[in-house]
Description:
The chain is an all-alpha fold. The protein contains 21 helices and 4 strands. It has helices at residues 2-31, 35-53, 55-67, 71-85, 91-110, 122-131, 135-169, 175-182, 187-220, 257-267, 273-278, 312-328, 344-356, 361-366, 372-409, 415-427, 444-448, 453-474, 481-492, 500-508, 515-521, and strands spanning 113-115, 118-120, 292-295, 302-305. Strands 1-2 form a two-stranded antiparallel sheet. A two-stranded antiparallel ribbon has the order 3-4. Helix 1 packs across helix 3. The longest helix has 38 residues, at 372-409. Bound molecules: zinc ion. Residues 320, 324, 348, 351 line the site of zinc ion (ZN).
Amino acid sequence: MPDARRIVEEAEARLAPLSEEMNLAWWASQVEATEQNAKRRERAEIAWSDALADREQFAAVETARRNGAADDVARRLDLLRDAMLRRQIPDGLRSRIVELETSVDLRFSRHRGIVGGAEVGDTEITRILRRSDDPRERREAWEASKIVGAVVADDVRELARLRNEAARTLGYRDWFALSLATDELDENRLVATLAETDRVTAEPFARWNSALGERLADRFGCAVADLRPWHHADPFFQEVPPDGAVDLDPYFDGADIVGLARRTIEGVGLDAAGIIERSDVYPRDGKNQHAFCIDIDRRGDVRVLANLVTTHESADTMLHELGHGVYDLGFRDDLPWLLRSTHLVATEASALLFGSLPGRREWLERILGLSPREADELEPRLRGARAVQLLVFTRWVLVMNAFERALYANPDGDLDALWWELVSRYQHVTPPDDRRAPDWAAKIHIAVSPVYYHTYLYGAIVALQLDAALESEVGGIVDRADAGALLRERLFAPGQSVRWDRLVEDASGSPLSVESLARAVAAA
Length: 524
Ligand SMILES: [Zn+2]
């Protein structure tokens, strides 16, 4: 027994500084994209990855697990094993995977489509699909968004073969099975949850989507049967089209987004001041254009990178990232390093919960200062928009998950046909006539963030469950210190000392279930 404790304590002593340097180097490279920062990041990532690949230590962890360890030592061994397992593959194979991933990623970032004879990036393509009334221009933009698929498809298939080979050397069926196992996700349960998700969203989605189809046919002067993917507002129909959303931006004109976010977090009795002080939240040349939250040292140095402007989306983003941040600051003081972390599903649930607040009546009234009458008028539309957002998103997750499962089951299969079969089944989108192209490969996540989409779905479901629990136990979230206290006590404080599925059950009062999703989408 003392032996097992010594193994985890030694591993923590070795990993903690490497992790901190990797996080600092990552942060530096994201706030300022210089050659020097990129090199520092690469060095730190290699050092971290090498430490996790240590075969001797992995063997010691496996032995200690077999011998059985007590209380939190057993849990720390499990987490250590999950972190190390994927790196226990032949060195040659590991480097081939990393090189191919990097090369595909690079081709994605360099690729530009052509519309009207000019090069266009993703932002311009999205702008055309959101605004253009010219079907020819839309079709050209949509097709331009897919060209990168043909450029990388062979390599994405090769990546799937290599990942499968890696998984099999570790005794797993394929990469899909290995990924779920190391993320503590049960495959049968996932398959069942997705089937349930399909069942509870099919009817409300069909209803909403057929009304959307009529509006689109009207707008483009064609029959519903003639609608094709380019009539949708984004290349994959993964986002709510503008006409399904409520435009809250006029209310955010000139708003102090950071101040509002801070006021929101303080209103639930949690602290955001320290995070905000360390953060980098306004747009600037040479920094990452997206947003993330990072826990640098698991001892309180938590930072957010964002590019805020004065819109509703920016308020959502800032509160989403702070939702991750307050979680990281909420771990019990006495937790050891390995347990001072979060499961992806749990932290994403917290982030989604806080990020949803600026789209709700109580927040708009209490934090942004809308009159009760304005808020009253908005409420049913906000509820409807939230439901539509969940519907569009869950149908898209069903496509992605079924596709990736099939990709790893057989990387040599007819993936081009399968993709459109899934898109038409789940999203009710009619494929372009006679289309033969690897359109699936244009989705960058399949190449560089494999087998991940279901964590977003689980996170969204858990956020709904937490929301319901807070509503029934403390009456809501906005300006309720009891809400922050409940989250801190039941969700944040345990860190990873308990498995995520039990944590969710403890925090929300029920195991993960699609019931909350079924209720939420009924408002569409
Ligand atoms: Zn997030």
